[in-house]
Amino acid sequence: MDFRFDIIKEYAPFFLQGVLLTIGLSIIAIIAGSILGLAIGLGKMSTKRFVRLPLEWYINFFRGTPLLVQMLLVHLGLMPLLFSQPSATVSLAVSLSLNSAAYVAEIFRAGIQSIDKGQMEAARSLGMTHTQAMRYVILPQALKRMIPPFTNEFIVLIKDSSLGAVIAAPELMYWGKAAQGQYYRVWEPYLTVAFIYLLLTLSLSKLLHYLERKYSNQ
Ligand code: ARG
């Protein structure tokens, strides 16, 4: 079987455009998702039921339904209510962010609750306020523990942004599908796309190991 490198060469500029969008979308989603996720995570630890309950259901919904379904709901349902010409890229960014917020909220909550409660008691008995104890004792330890799941979240976002191809957001997978559709060839476009995703996720997990080593021995 011949392997048509010319197809890859022809599509190289598009794959490059696509990978830039994939990276950009993942960065936007991890930032927006973290801000929203932090708020949700903190709210979920509230003692007030009317604050906690809706947030619990937000998390339940976004973790308990497929991202593909959420993306279609956003793109075909929500966005047309707000814009006359919804952009698939914006819809993808929004659904990735909303989805990621639910996971990040749990990362924050689990990170904070994983710190032994003796730490809070000790800090309080030294005369710190609750906020000071959080700021100087709990959060520095919790943040360290959040690094691995957080990097993992970023890796998941890179891979899951490929669902955007379904609504024609021109990220990496979209161009793979385009090349496949034009030439009816499977191996060339999809192996190339797989290789690029692998390159992205492997370099991220390398970075993760580096960060873990750097912060675990202090
Ligand atoms: N791909 C799965 C889904 O379709 C999981 C999504 C996980 N998302 C995340 N941000 N960790 O629901």
Secondary-structure topology with pairs:
Layout: H1 5-44, H2 49-64, H3 67-82, H4 88-113, H5 117-125, H6 130-160, H7 172-183, H8 187-216
Helix pairs in contact: 1-2, 1-4, 1-6, 1-7, 1-8, 2-4, 3-4, 4-6, 5-6, 6-8, 7-8
The structure holds arginine.
Arginine (ARG) binds next to helix 3, helix 4 and helix 6.
What does this structure look like?
- By secondary structure, the protein is mostly helical.
- It has one domain: Orthogonal Bundle (MetI-like fold).
- It is built from eight helices and no strands.
- The protein has helices spanning 5-44, 49-64, 67-82, 88-113, 117-125, 130-160, 172-183, 187-216.
- The longest helix is centred in the N-terminal third of the chain and has 40 residues, at 5-44.
- The protein is flat.
- The structure holds arginine.
- Residues 66-68, 99-100, 103, 153, 156-157, 160 line the site of arginine.
